[in-house]
Amino acid sequence: MALIVQKFGGSSVGDAEKIKLVAKRVIETHRAGNQVVVVVSAMGDTTDDLLELANNVSDDPEATPRELDMLLTAGERISVALLSMAINSMGEKSRSFSGLQAGIITDSTYGNARIAEVTPDRVQEAIDKGEIAIVAGFQGFDPTSGDITTLGRGGSDTTAVALAAGLNADVCEIYSDVDGVYTADPRSVPRAKKIDSIDIESMLELAAAGAKILYIRAVEFARRHKVDLRVRSSFTDNPGTTIYSSGETMEESIVAGVAVDQSQAKITVVGIPDVPGKAAELFTVVAEAGINIDMIVQNVAVSNTKLSDISFTLLAEDLKKAIQALEAAKDHMGFASLQFDESIGKLSVVGSGMKTHSGVSATLFGALAKAGVNIEMISTSEIRISVITRSDQVIEAARVVHSAFGLDGDTEAVVHAGTGR
Questions:
Q1: Among 26, 144, 221, 414, which has the minimal tally of Cβ within 10 Å of its Cβ?
Q2: Structural domains for the chain
Q3: According to its UniProt record, which protein family does this protein belong to (predicted)?
């Protein structure tokens, strides 16, 4: 008997009929002789609707983050109750749990809490009784304050992986509206091919580079706790893509996939003194503002001025906060000015085979040159090369690069609901 954790996103439980389809799929897994724990997101656009309500009653709902978390967690509780009702009406026993009841213990950061511990005693009790456990994703409980918290982006994925680790599950299945992990986002690159299996390191790089099928925090958790993942579609019986936590390279392709991220912006700090410690000052200011940095480039200092420029990328939603923090520190740091750019796109090629094959950079930059795409920044790791270019060029650049590495399939990929979640 295998213990399987299944996660279904908002598009999979978008209405009553879809919830019943999910219930049937869960029951099929259970009747095949498996113990089943299900994690669900809020239905469809419920979270967006709740945020709109919050904005309608408050000029600044983020000023009361505790109440915002209390509000947003309602969406997942609706989903778990409805799914449990559907399963019970179909002849199987199930029980729904909030994040608190499921033992998801977090820190005290409202809106983006980190999971500190998982104590799924009540979930284990339910599955030991032969019941299907239905757990609300995206939420946890801070024992210090006694408050409900939310987990931020990818919270339901992270909940599912955390429960799989806490329950020592055999596999964690992430269901969305595509049939698995593709060599590129099939909404942008129609001839992207499904990958049957991929190592966790390559998946982590793809997630970090902007691939939308899995959130990076969930993949990081899976790597840390050795949880095997399987990405499948809620709408077909396709076996999907297996992500092996052992780190073994399951496929021989040099490049596993191409990812695009259009959610970033770039800041250039102009005329910063080229002396030891100034870069540390700069990024300390950014870190203290709670902002994560992606790519960094420092220009060579002009010899007669001893000044240089430092450019870095960050989430576009953090741009205003970063500019405010840097402007406040301008006199102390001694830089001349700030420039920012919200019209950038990041393109990345990822694959564990890159470590042992030459010519990857030549193929990438040759393809971009032929397409007339200018490169503004470059960042590399052992299994990834990322470049920054113009946002309005990055999708076409991804298609060109995808073809250059021989990743195109014979037919167009199918996206069943259109969101990729």
A1: 144
A2: 3-176 (3.40.1160.10)
A3: Belongs to the aspartokinase family.
